[in-house]
Design goal:
The structure holds two protein chains of two kinds. Chain A has helices at residues 2-22, 29-55, 69-72, 75-101, 104-135, 143-174, 183-209. Helices cover 81% and strands 0% of the residues of chain A. Chain A has one domain: Up-down Bundle (Four Helix Bundle (Hemerythrin (Met), subunit A)), CATH 1.20.120. Chain B is mainly alpha-helical. In chain B, strand 1 (560-562) and strand 2 (568-570) form a beta hairpin. The longest helix of chain B has 35 residues, at 85-119. Chain B folds into three domains: 8-39 and 586-690, no CATH class; 46-515, Cytochrome C Oxidase, Chain A, CATH 1.20.210.10; 530-577, no CATH class. Chain B has 22 helices and two strands. Chain B is globular. The chains are: A mainly alpha, B mainly alpha. Chains A and B meet through helix 1, helix 2 and helix 6 of A and helix 7, helix 8, helix 9 and helix 21 of B.
């Protein structure tokens, strides 16, 4: 492993020079594009969250006890799954740190952990959705149901796409295609992952905690 | 992008090892054609993509134009029974949707794609394959939207598609499903394109090209893309909610379940008002390029031009509810949006005054591009003034939903955006195609357009103030609507005639060029910005050598300087100042099939959501496979300035093995490692021509 890293170190040395003269801002195209995309995604979640806030207390159809969000939620359960998701940000940061140091093996392990934590969160979301469904709150039951499933579902889709990316990076590293020259790829993906987590902090607060 | 020194002929043969890497999923070999129809399908050249945007926009313009004529034919006389109310609804809805999303937006995209990289001295956009993806996604989205005509009828809820009026209850056909999904697809195209062009402007400028040395067109394109990046997600959410309501029985706009009918209006217009500036700002940019050239003066107040554009970009987000004065949203909202709408007239007014000041005292040449540019300045001013009357809320509640509004937005979108783009066609045509459009015929076209336009939309002010409502398929006799509707229809056919003249001009000028080829040279109008520094038509690699920029209007400053008395004198001819375009072995981004495949899968998902999940599954799997195929395909680093960067790239993808033995070869100039040969379709062609 050590000579492996040493070999790739040669490639790494070239990398900064390559980046520096390549762009007018000094930030690579890929990273800048990710920042712009995340800016755009803010508006996506902004629109979804506004819709939820507007509609959550307006349900007039479906069973009485399923019209008020706070009667439906299981806060302790969702708090745990939120914690799991936030911890995945920690492991993601560690993965970025590891690949910047050239420690491919650790990076791979942290990427796998991040994917696992993300998948645990999604598993929790699936469990939560089925539990609500069993209680009678379907997607079409009332306004709250439509707004809740759409908002959290959009976030879940973001996490799921992130997990697919993580697994792709993981497979790339197994095949030896994820050297320190790809540190920035991992870093850029990390931006996305942290963004999705930050959005969850907002959603958790707005949807679950604020009555 | 590197200038790669290497022999041309061996580069055409792929080394056996590289072939594996070029078929990431064993499906496609890397396309290499540079001519013929296949090269257009796989191209990633921003210029070709710009041309295709323009061609597609003109195609959809024909469709939207026919729809417009159909509307006018119906309304010529009272109590017309040509079409049913439902068909009329479909026609005017599809006319609006087509003209906004499939004509003016892509026409702006055509100019921005073609010109913006040239004006900042770049070889291509930041992500060439994404650029191709944007175009194909737009095209397939537009075609998808229009297939609704054959699959149960077009959208019929107006381009603004107010929900719950567009719910299944009130619009039971599939038209609104096509609307929601079709605009979703074109929205993806706009969003991806916007991210791409923003990164291009920020990152790919030539040395010395600071932000405040960028041409006004590039600036306006940049502001437009920023508006798109933040506006598109909002309409995407609205369209998703509509689709969920219509297809999956959600309740978002179900007022019976307690929903708020204002939700759609707010979401739509938060997108919809920035959209108005998305339509007009590229046109402002085009005019800001044309007027200085034909006035023989620099643009007046360049910083004011730039910052008023930025101000419009910001203030455009604070005026959306002036579309909703009649919705009953409350007096405080109405007052606030009334004020902000009056304020946004200020930066627009600054622009108009700056164009006038640019022309003031200039040696004006009234050739066709200039006529169209002046057409914008005058017609847009009329539209802008009637727009200010909407800002007065009490007046607006009288005007809203009448033909006065129709008159207003046609004066700003047709009289503004379309006039500018027509001028832009005449202005940049020689640069793009290497032959010039006939100026005399162009003048005929201009005057016919101007007369027809004013005859069509001028009377609509009167009709609107008389109280004729929009979106109604007929009107009764005796309200005094007959005369002006008659005039408007005559005007509409004069516009149609004007566009026939345009088509004739293109064909006749091309024939004239074929019979007697005369190259217009790099700089037929004695212009100012960098794209004129290149031969016409622009060579595939753009710049032989990336210019170093020291002035605003860099190219002009290379042709003119002050002598010792302070008088401006010509120091170089255009040909001397221009590049020759004969560089060989320039490393260009590789063509690719994946953008086309990925874009083609999106309408499948759309059809799947409307008709049968099977299509959606096929489409979804194709998207996934194409995304991975794309990701695994060796990307070209468009800003790699030296050969070995490209080698690094290939090494990573090519060997799939970073073992200890892999440290050599990266920098070695051995021909065996020279697998970017397949990459450089265009340059291979060029260099083999040369030798």
């Amino acid at each position: 492993m050590s000579d492996h890293i040493l070999t790739l170190g040669g490639v790494q040395e070239e990398q900064p020079a390559h980046d520096a003269h390549a762009t007018s801002t000094g930030i690579s195209n890929e990273k800048l594009a990710m920042w712009v995309f995340l800016g755009s995604d803010c508006l996506l979640f902004g629109a979804l969250i506004s819709t939820y806030l507007l509609l959550r207390h307006r349900s007039t159809t479906g069973p009485e006890h399923l019209r008020v969000p706070k009667d439906v939620f299981d806060i302790p359960f969702t708090s745990v799954s939120s914690f799991v998701l936030l911890m995945s940000s920690l492991t993601m940061a560690l993965a970025v740190g590891a690949i910047h140091r050239g420690d491919i093996r650790r990076c791979r392990a942290f990427l796998a952990t991040t994917a696992l934590l993300g998948a645990t969160f999604i598993g929790g979301q699936v469990y939560e959705f089925t539990a609500f469904k069993r209680e009678g709150l379907g997607f079409t039951t009332n306004l709250f149901g439509s707004a809740f499933y759409t908002l959290t579902g959009f976030h879940g889709a973001h996490v799921s796409i992130g997990i697919m990316f993580l697994l792709s990076l993981f497979v790339m590293s197994l095949r030896g295609n994820l050297g320190p020259d790809k540190a920035e790829t991992v870093e850029i993906f990390g931006l996305y992952w942290h963004f999705v987590d930050i959005v969850w902090i907002l959603i958790f607060t707005i949807v679950y905690l604020i009555p | 992008m590197a200038i790669v020194e290497r022999p041309a002929t061996p580069a055409l043969q792929l080394p056996p090892g590289a072939a594996v890497a070029e078929r990431p999923l064993g499906v496609f070999t890397r396309p290499t054609a540079t001519t013929g129809w296949r090269s257009w399908l796989t191209t990633v050249d921003h210029k070709r993509i710009g041309i295709m945007y323009g061609a597609a926009a003109l195609f959809f313009f024909f469709m939207g134009g026919v729809e417009a004529l159909m509307i006018r034919v119906q309304l010529t006389a009272p109590d017309s029974k040509l079409y049913s109310a439902d068909l009329y609804n479909q026609i005017f809805t599809m006319h609006g949707v087509t003209m906004i999303f499939l004509v003016v937006m892509p026409m702006g995209a055509a100019f921005m794609n073609y010109l913006m990289p040239l004006q900042i001295g770049a070889r291509d956009v930041a992500f060439p394959r994404l650029n191709a993806f944007s175009f194909w996604t737009f095209l397939f989205g537009g075609i998808f939207l229009n297939t609704s005509w054959f699959l149960g009828g077009g959208a019929n809820g107006g381009w603004f598609a107010y929900a719950p009026n567009t719910s299944v209850t009130f619009s039971p056909g599939h038209g609104m499903d096509f609307y929601a999904l079709g605009l979703q697809i074109t929205g993806i195209a706009s969003l991806v394109g916007a991210i791409n062009l923003i990164v291009t402007v920020l990152n790919m400028r030539a040395p010395g090209m600071t932000l405040m040395k960028m041409p006004v067109f590039t600036w306006m394109a940049f502001v437009t893309q920023l508006l798109l990046v933040f506006a598109i997600p909002v309409i995407s959410v609205a369209l998703v909610l509509l689709t969920l309501d219509r297809t999956f029985d959600a309740n978002f706009f179900n007022t019976a379940a307690g929903a708020d009918a204002l939700l759609w209006e707010h979401l739509f217009w938060i997108f919809g008002h920035p959209e108005v500036y998305i339509l007009i700002l590229p046109a402002f940019g085009v005019v800001s390029e044309i007027i200085p050239v034909f006035s023989r003066k620099p643009i007046f107040g360049y910083p004011f031009m730039v910052f008023s554009g930025i101000a419009i970009g910001f203030m455009g987000w604070g005026v959306w509810a002036h579309h909703m004065f009649a919705s009953g949203m409350g007096p405080i909202s109405v007052a606030a949006f009334s004020m902000s709408t009056m304020f946004i007239a200020v930066p627009t007014g600054v622009k108009i005054l700056n164009w006038l000041a640019t022309m003031w005292g200039g040696r004006i040449t009234f050739s066709t591009p200039m006529l169209f540019a002046i057409g914008l300045v005058t017609m847009f001013t009329i539209g802008g003034l009637s727009g200010v009357t909407h800002a007065v809320a009490p007046a607006d509640t009288q005007q809203t939903d009448t033909y006065y509004i129709v008159a207003h937005f046609h004066y700003v979108i047709f009289g503004g955006a379309l006039f500018a783009f027509l001028g832009g066609f005449y202005f940049w045509w020689p640069k793009v195609f290497g032959w010039i459009l006939n100026d005399k015929v162009g003048k005929w076209q201009f005057w016919l357009t101007l007369i027809g336009f004013n005859l069509t939309f001028g009377p609509m002010h009167i009709l609107g103030l008389q109280g004729m409502p929009r979106r109604q398929h007929s009107y009764k006799e005796g309200y005094g609507f007959e005369l002006w509707n008659h005039v408007a229809t005559v005007g509409a056919f004069i516009i149609a005639l004007a566009f026939l003249v345009f088509a004739y001009n293109i064909i006749a000028s091309w024939r004239a060029h074929k019979a007697n080829p005369v190259n217009p040279g790099p700089d037929p109008w004695d212009s100012r910005s960098l794209e004129w520094m290149l031969p016409s038509p622009t060579p595939a690699h753009n710049f032989d050598e990336v210019p170093t920029v020291s002035h605003l209007d860099e190219f002009w400053h290379r042709k003119y300087a002050e002598d010792e008395t302070g008088k401006v004198v010509r120091v170089a001819t255009s040909e001397e100042a221009a590049q020759k375009g004969d560089a060989t072995n320039v490393h260009l981004p590789s063509p690719s099939y994946w953008p086309l495949v990925l874009a083609a899968a999106l309408p499948l998902i759309g059809y799947g959501l409307i008709f049968s999940p099977a299509f959606a599954v096929v489409g979804g799997i194709t998207v996934l496979l194409a995304a991975y195929g794309w990701g695994l395909e060796p990307a070209d680093d468009p800003e790699a300035h030296h050969a070995h960067a490209a080698h690094d790239e290939h090494d990573e993808h090519g060997d799939g093995d970073d073992g200890p033995g892999d440290d050599d070869g990266d920098d070695s100039p051995e021909p065996k490692d020279d697998d970017d040969g397949e990459v450089v379709a265009a340059s291979v062609k060029e260099s083999s021509d040369d030798e």
